[in-house]
Specification:
Blueprint lengths: L7 E3 L2 E3 L3 E12 L2 E13 L4 E5 L6 H8 L7 E10 L3 E2 L5 H11 E4 L13 H11 L5 H14 L4 H5 L8 H13 L5 E5 L7 H18 L2 E6 L2 H7 L2 E6 L2 E7 H6 L4 H8 L2 H4 L30 H5 L3 H5 L5 E4 L2 E3 L2 H4 L8 H6 L2
Parallel strand pairs: 5-10, 5-11, 8-9, 9-10
Antiparallel strand pairs: 1-2, 3-4, 3-6, 6-7, 11-12, 12-14, 13-14
This protein binds adenosine-5'-triphosphate (ATP).
Length: about 350
């Protein structure tokens, strides 16, 4: 029998499944050996919530999104941990037909660059029927009706889109087709990787409002992966901030944006004029994110770019990878000074002494 995600109930409404990611590690084989791109991640997605997973390029976001579908490709592999989805069980231990049916069936996904991921040689309608075949859908008419209904909710004409080839659709339209294909088999969990990248500002904000509407209408559990903390601010209930394969901060979006506790989160927010509200105040985060080969093997992976460490270098930041501490209910931060109750910025006198 095929497993199905277990809808949960929130305020009497059926919503998507709960997801519990525990100690997840994903590594890639490289000439320098097998190196982790995602290290011992713990993250819960609450039923019916939208979580934003944010970080710079190379922080491990796409690897993590692929792991949610147990779809990490060689030379990568999940080397540890579990991803429990209500009703489906641990995705890491699914294989074969069960896994194929879960992907696209129970777990809808729109991969990075979805604008270019449609088959250029087939109409959207033909690709929909391919999907129906691979998922053994018997009632194809009902599936087409469902596809047209989803497209029309996203402001598109179903007939026209199903008859179109990829090159006949704009970037924003392709992105909506990607969302339709992700949801048409009635997924309850939706994973979107960079849903707005490569779209102009107006299309970006349209797509975000469509994501919010479809998420609410269908009662989904949604993960939005993005390098843009502005996208998180617009769409997500909760945010998880990733750096060097670690989750460095998690919490309700409004609280994290208002009062970031990790120096990296603070840096990401300060880099965006529309979040600081003052273009004069916006400052790019200095330095570059690490690659797999340059992620520090010891201590805090962020310390080389950390203004707090530069001002007040602590020994534990050099020796021990900080684990996440819960500083308030649902608010987690992986930073030694924060865990010690110190403010996110070093005291001016410490900064002065270490200058
Ligand atoms: N097939 C691969 N082989 C080796 N290393 C890889 C492979 N795919 C990704 N990586 C490395 O794993 C790390 C995480 O990459 P990932 O694509 O998950 O990050 P990301 O945050 O999604 O960045 P981006 O938005 O640029 O895709 C990076 O250092 C990347 O170079």
């Amino acid at each position: 029998m095929t497993a199905v995600t277990q809808p949960s109930e929130v305020d009497g409404k059926k919503v998507g499944p709960a997801v519990r990611i525990a100690d997840l590690t994903v590594a890639y084989r490289t000439p320098a050996g097998e190196l982790p791109a995602v290290s011992r991640i713990n993250l819960d997605l609450a039923p019916g919530s939208i979580t934003g997973l944010v970080g710079e390029s190379g922080s491990g976001k796409s690897t993590m999104a692929l792991a949610m579908l147990n779809a990490v490709q060689k030379p990568g592999r999940i080397t540890g941990g579990s991803i429990e989805i209500d009703g489906l069980g641990d995705v890491v231990s699914l294989a074969g037909r069960q896994l194929r049916e879960a992907r696209g069936g129970e777990i809808g996904y729109v991969f990075q660059a979805a604008q270019n991921s449609l088959n250029p040689l087939k109409t959207v309608g033909k690709q929909l029927l391919d999907l129906a075949r691979s998922h053994h859908v018997e009632d194809k008419r009902a599936l087409v009706r469902q596809a047209k209904d989803l497209l029309s909710r996203m402001g598109l004409s179903g007939d026209r889109v199903l008859d179109s080839y990829q090159h006949e659709l704009s970037g924003g339209m392709r992105q909506r087709v990607g969302i339709m294909l992700a949801l048409v088999l009635n997924a309850h969990l939706l994973v979107l990787d960079e849903p707005t990248t490569a779209l102009d500002m107006i299309s970006q904000s349209n797509i975000l409002s469509i994501i919010r509407d479809v998420h609410a209408e269908r009662g989904l559990t949604t993960l939005v992966v993005t390098h843009d903390i502005g996208v998180v601010a617009e769409v997500a209930d909760r945010v998880a901030v990733m750096y060097g394969g670690r989750l460095v901060e998690q919490g309700p979006t409004t609280e994290v944006l208002k009062n970031p506790k990790h120096p990296y989160t603070r840096g990401l927010i300060n880099a965006i004029p529309r979040l600081t509200g003052d273009p004069e105040v916006a400052q790019p985060l200095p330095g570059r994110p690490p690659t797999l080969g340059t992620i520090p093997k010891q201590g805090c992976v962020f310390r080389e770019r950390c203004a707090r460490y530069a001002a007040d270098p602590r020994e534990d930041c050099e020796t021990t990878d900080p684990s996440a501490s819960e500083i308030a209910p649902g608010r987690l931060v992986a930073c030694h000074p924060v865990a010690a109750g110190l403010p996110v910025e070093a005291a001016p006198e410490a900064a002065e002494e270490n200058r």
